[in-house]
Design brief:
Elements (H helix, E strand, L loop, with lengths): L2 H11 L5 E5 L3 H11 L5 H12 L4 H4 E6 L1 H4 L9 H7 L3 E4 L2 E6 L7 E5 L3
Parallel strand pairs: 1-2, 2-3
Antiparallel strand pairs: 4-5
Length: 119
Amino acid sequence: MNAHERIDTARAMVAGDKGLLAMDESNPTCNKRFVRLGIPQTVEARRTYRELIFTTPGLGECISGVILYDETICQQKKDGTPFIKAITDAGIVPGIKVDSGAWNMAAHPGEKITESLDG
């Protein structure tokens, strides 16, 4: 991506009165929500949940960008359309969570550090 493309992307993400949607919750976090509601903690249940959100009518009118979890970025709608296509077709800029969460920082009690996806 060149500088002009990065600038265009940044402008699209802060356009108008739109916001960013953080859909980057990990599978364990999503599964905790599902347990409380009696929903099976499966890949298909998470996919269906995410599809429900991504296909919300008018989502692109309110959301300019979405942060996705690693599993989500590879998933598809039930009809085979990749989530990324559904998101971009709605005029939403997709992104991916690039860390594996906050961890305790060695030798610094109470401080947190993030670890990248590649370890």
